[in-house]
Amino acid sequence: MKNHPASRASRAATKDRALPRSAGVLAGGLWQRLAASYAARTLVALALVASLPLHAENKIPEECRTGGFFIGCQSYTFTRFTMFEAIDKTLEVGGKVIELGNGQKLSKDDPDIVWNYLAPRAIQEKLKARLAEAHLRPVNYGVVDIPKDEAEARKLFEWAKYMGLRAIVTESVESIDTIEKMVKEYDIMVGFHNHPRRPDNPNYRMWDPNYILSVVKDRDPRIGSCSDIGHWVRSNLKPVDCLRILKGRVISCHMKDLNAMGPGAHDVPFGTGVSDIPGILEELKSQAFNGNISIEYEYHWDNSAPEVGQCIGFVRGYGAARKW
């Protein structure tokens, strides 16, 4: 009987069942560890995806930073000079980026040409070549009206794409639907600019950061504020508070330090006025701000370059001290 086939089969079956008991526990633990590891890797992957920007943007090259920021001039600072001279002066004061304004003559060699985005392509090529020669990065354009009409708005965005701009600056709230469509189509950001409060015109609301937030908060994230620091000060608002209201929606910044709060105040070198430039820089850094800071100096028009240079020097020094 001990060699009966049925007995041998029974012993083999018993042996087979006995062995996997410990092996099964081992296998079960292994599977649990593998499942946990897979779940963890999946969560990490999902977190990484969630942290990525929902939209691309024309990023400003890192080599354009000064003191941790992309700082340069709004060409309007040198509005009494030609656009080519504004480029030269921006370089002289230490800027690495420039925001192009409207209505300046192109150059001394072309005194009859008043430049804007609708100028003929040959004129645009001259400007683009001069910027490339100067190694100065154009980043913004404005303040400019953006038409409601899509065909007309497209001319502006086509030009901005051709120039390699990151953003357009406007106050055309009435065109917000067209703006959002163009932003999605061209991947060009738009910043809504603020001028000072107008007591004689209560319908003008752009001075109020809460109003600008109400305009942009439910729109594409590439639409936000071009925060004009000096005009907030002229409206008796504290710029750091305004930036906090607009957190996550600050596209670019017109930086000014003024000699006093309220209407009638004028520009002074950074750090010598009431705007709280250190607090502003700290707040922008805390928001991971990656837009440009344009110095728009509207004082001593004929010889503002030394004071504008002091402003860039302040940011350079402050950023160095903070190791930005």
Features:
alpha/beta; globular; two-stranded antiparallel sheet; single chain; 8-stranded parallel β-barrel; 324 residues; disordered N terminus
Would you give an account of this structure?
- The chain has 324 residues and is an alpha/beta fold.
- The protein has 10 helices and 12 strands.
- The strands form 3 sheets. The chain has an 8-stranded parallel β-barrel, surrounded by 5 helices.
- Strand 5, helix 4 and strand 6 form a beta-alpha-beta unit.
- Helix 2 runs parallel beside helix 3 and helix 8 packs parallel to helix 9.
- The longest helix is centred in the N-terminal third of the chain and has 47 residues.
- The protein is globular, with a radius of gyration of 29 Å.
- The N terminus is likely disordered.
Write a brief caption for the model.
This protein is an alpha/beta fold and 324 residues long. It has helices at 5-51, 83-92, 121-134, 150-163, 176-186, 209-216, 229-234, 239-245, 277-286, 305-322; strands at 70-74, 97-100, 105-107, 110-114, 137-141, 167-170, 189-193, 223-228, 250-255, 257-258, 267-268, 292-295. The strands form three sheets. It has an eight-stranded parallel β-barrel with strand order 1-2-5-6-7-8-9-12, surrounded by five helices. A two-stranded antiparallel ribbon has the order 3-4.
**Termini, distance in Å?**
88 Å
The average pLDDT score comes to 88
Q: Helix and strand succession?
A: HEHEEEHEHEHEHEHHEEEHEH
The total count of helices amounts to: 10
Categorize the overall geometry. Answer: globular
Strand order of the largest sheet: 1-2-5-6-7-8-9-12
Q: Radius of gyration, rounded? A: 29 Å
User: How many E-type strands?
Assistant: 12
> Residue share in helices?
40-55%
Structural class: alpha/beta
Strand content: 15-25%
**Biggest pleated sheet:** 8 strands, parallel, barrel
Which regions are unreliable across 5 or more consecutive residues at pLDDT < 50?
A: 1-27, 42-54
